[in-house]
């Protein structure tokens, strides 16, 4: 068995596969760009905070609060003192404060979607304060209009709202994940659902496939559907059929990446994501090699 090596500061150095245990976002970084994983988890660089992260987290928190009410009460507005604006503000303020404390980066430095494109609205603090409550409310409206979908329950009757997984072995590494919702329809079909409040549409099904794999490992239930709910439009949920083979492929890809990381191989994947989703572009030599167009978008020139 490999023993952890001592680092210069005396701490035991963990293998990347051990670090993957910490969260699903670590695995997500790893799948999107192994170099991003190295920057965040190995080198422990500070990521430049983004308004969309604080806003998106607050939207998630409000919808979670709503869904827990919705299990027993028809409308959160019936709860004394509730307002969408007040609920969002409470979560958003807390998220901003915690992020500032954690990173030490002033809010004036935070990244905002659309900031480098004059034709679009800059999605800064004011944007999220104005729009965040409605994004959360859109989920509630969809729930009310789609009673054929209800929250799935675990065998111990825990409602699958922000359902936590803490797996020993997912493709060779431990994995901790939180699934926004697992829902079931009248036909008995099970779906894993991720709520998206950001402006960019998800381009990969990886996240949903990982969640489906978690459900199978933990509960022996393989969801046949996965969906990204667009909190901005709120009028549609994009359901994709999750192919059995694709879930298995995802686990195999995780396994391959883990082998590469433990061997110290971090392949960078420079591209569009450097500008829009990565807070490590200022530290990354691969990002320096982007074309001028993408370097401008990433705020590097
Ligand atoms: S800037 Fe791009 S290539 Fe560099 S770590 Fe981030 S996503 Fe990867």
From TrEMBL:
Domain PD-(D/E)XK endonuclease-like intervals: 22-284
Matching InterPro entries: PDDEXK-like_dom_sf, PDDEXK_AddAB-type
Keywords for this protein: ATP-binding, DNA damage, DNA repair, Helicase, Hydrolase, Nucleotide-binding
Protein name: PD-(D/E)XK endonuclease-like domain-containing protein
Organism placement in taxonomy: Bacteria, Bacillati, Actinomycetota, Actinomycetes, Streptosporangiales
């Amino acid at each position: 068995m490999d023993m952890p090596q001592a680092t210069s500061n005396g701490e035991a150095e963990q293998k990347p596969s051990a670090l993957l245990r910490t969260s699903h976002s670590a695995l997500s970084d790893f799948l999107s760009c192994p170099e991003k994983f190295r920057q965040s988890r190995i080198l422990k660089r500070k990521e430049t905070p983004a308004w969309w992260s604080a806003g998106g987290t607050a939207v998630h928190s409000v919808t979670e609060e709503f869904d827990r009410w919705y299990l027993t009460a028809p409308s959160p507005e019936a709860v004394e003192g509730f307002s969408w604006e007040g609920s969002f503000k409470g979560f958003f303020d807390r998220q901003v404060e915690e992020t500032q404390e954690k990173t030490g980066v002033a809010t004036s430095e935070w990244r905002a979607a659309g900031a480098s494109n004059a034709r679009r609205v800059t999605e800064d603090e004011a944007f999220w304060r104005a729009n965040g409550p409605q994004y959360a409310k859109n989920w509630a409206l969809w729930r009310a209009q789609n009673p054929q979908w209800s929250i799935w329950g675990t065998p111990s009757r825990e409602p699958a709202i922000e359902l936590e997984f803490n797996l020993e072995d997912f493709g060779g590494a431990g994995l901790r994940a939180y699934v926004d919702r697992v829902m079931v329809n009248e036909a008995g079909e099970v779906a894993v659902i991720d709520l998206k409040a950001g402006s960019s549409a998800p381009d990969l099904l990886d996240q949903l496939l990982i969640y489906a794999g978690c459900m199978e490992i933990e509960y022996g239930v393989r969801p046949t559907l996965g969906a990204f709910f667009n909190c901005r439009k709120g009028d549609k949920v994009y359901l994709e059929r999750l192919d059995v083979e694709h879930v298995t492929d995802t686990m195999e890809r995780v396994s391959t990446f883990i082998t590469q990381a433990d061997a110290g191989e971090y392949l960078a994947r420079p591209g569009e994501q450097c500008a829009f989703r990565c807070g490590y572009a200022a530290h990354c030599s691969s990002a320096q090699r982007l074309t001028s167009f993408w370097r401008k978008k990433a705020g590097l020139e």
